[in-house]
């Protein structure tokens, strides 16, 4: 069974940083691009970043460049998202997604930025 | 900043047909934008229905189809069912980064 399980969310103070993880199983993780998508409460999804199979190519949403870093560890079947200088606008559920054509989605991890 | 536009809301009768569209502020949507369509119901993660403009996943009901129409990407639902009531989002590729549309709330009534 394919699973993507996000973790690392929680309550963080403005200005803080966070590293989100996504554990993949049930498919050949190293064969696919992987993506982070976030969704603020009551809003539509926002594409955040993606990374190619060996981590050599990364793309970020123009509005988020500089504060987000995507990475992966194929040996651990894991995807990561490091977020710096968090603001209230970063409050959202963060999903990881992957597969040949966005086949697989996790259930998300909630990040709340508040003092 | 690229903006991807969708109809905010549409209504379709059960058994009816409706087309949702996805436009780009940069101009005509082409196959190069590799349009994706997602369905999302409250409290759930998005589910991919269509990829690369018109390709379906194994779980995509046959009543959904994707195309390019009038310079936009389009999702057509033929024979709407009550369970199709949901939010629908498109996603377009811009030579690296991707951008979601704002979503269409589809009501089956």
Termini separation of chain B: 36 Å
Largest sheet of chain B: 7 strands, mixed
Number of helices of chain A: 0
Order of helices and strands of chain B: EEEEEEEEEEE
β-strand percent of chain B reads over 45%
Can you count the beta strands of chain A?
11
Shape of chain A: globular
Bulk shape of chain B: globular
Helix content of chain B: under 10%
Q: Rounded to an integer, what's the Rg of chain A over CA atoms? A: 13 Å
Number of strands of chain B: 11
Strand content of chain A: over 45%
Oligomer category? heterodimer
- In this structure, how is the largest beta sheet of chain A organized? 7 strands, mixed
Give structural notes:
The complex is a heterodimer of chains A (115) and B (109). Chain A has 115 residues and is mainly beta. Chain A has no helices and 11 strands. In chain A, strands 2, 4, 5, 6, 9, 10 and 11 form a 7-stranded mixed beta sheet that branches. A 4-stranded antiparallel beta sheet of chain A has the order 1-3-8-7, with no helix packed on it. Chain B has 109 residues and is mostly beta strands. In chain B, 0% of the residues lie in helices and 51% in strands. In chain B, strands 2, 4, 5, 6, 9, 10 and 11 form a 7-stranded mixed beta sheet that branches. Chain B is globular and about 35 Å long. The model of chain B has no long low-confidence stretch (mean pLDDT 97). Chains A and B meet through strand 5 of A and strand 4, strand 5, strand 9 and strand 10 of B.
